[in-house]
């Protein structure tokens, strides 16, 4: 009788853990789908505004004043890196942070 209870308890714990894992996978899939949807809907606006800023500050690169020339170059490089990270790295960080929040609650 004792062995049956042990097996039954083990099965219940295993089944509960399996259900929790299935919920986590569903949450991660939903989070990834939501992030992909959000990024795809605003990616064009982010890209166009970033390229506008790059275009505007790249004109400063051709000024003869050295301080403004270096400012324009640094601003163009910084904006380029910010644009790349906003479209690639930031969505990944959002997914991992959201998944981490869900894991802490379980």
From TrEMBL:
Transmembrane residue ranges: 42-65, 71-96
Domain Membrane transport protein MMPL: 22-100
Keywords: Membrane, Transmembrane, Transmembrane helix
Predominant location category: membrane
Membrane topology listed for this record: Multi-pass membrane protein
SUPFAM superfamilies named among the record's database cross-references: Multidrug efflux transporter AcrB transmembrane domain
Top-level taxon of origin: Bacteria
Entry annotated with the keyword Membrane: yes
Subcellular location: Membrane
InterPro entries associated with the record: MMPL_dom
Name of the molecule in the record: MMPL family transporter
Taxonomic source organism: Furfurilactobacillus milii
């Amino acid at each position: 009788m004792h062995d049956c209870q042990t097996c039954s308890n083990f099965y219940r714990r295993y089944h509960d853990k399996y259900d929790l894992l299935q919920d986590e996978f569903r949450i991660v899939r939903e989070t990834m789908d939501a992030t992909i949807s959000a990024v795809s809907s605003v990616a064009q606006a982010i890209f166009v505004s970033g390229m506008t800023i790059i275009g505007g500050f790249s004109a400063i690169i051709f000024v003869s004043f050295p301080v403004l020339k270096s400012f324009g170059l640094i601003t163009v490089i910084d904006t380029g890196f910010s644009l790349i990270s906003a479209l690639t790295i930031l969505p990944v960080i959002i997914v991992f942070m959201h998944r981490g929040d869900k894991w802490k609650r379980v």
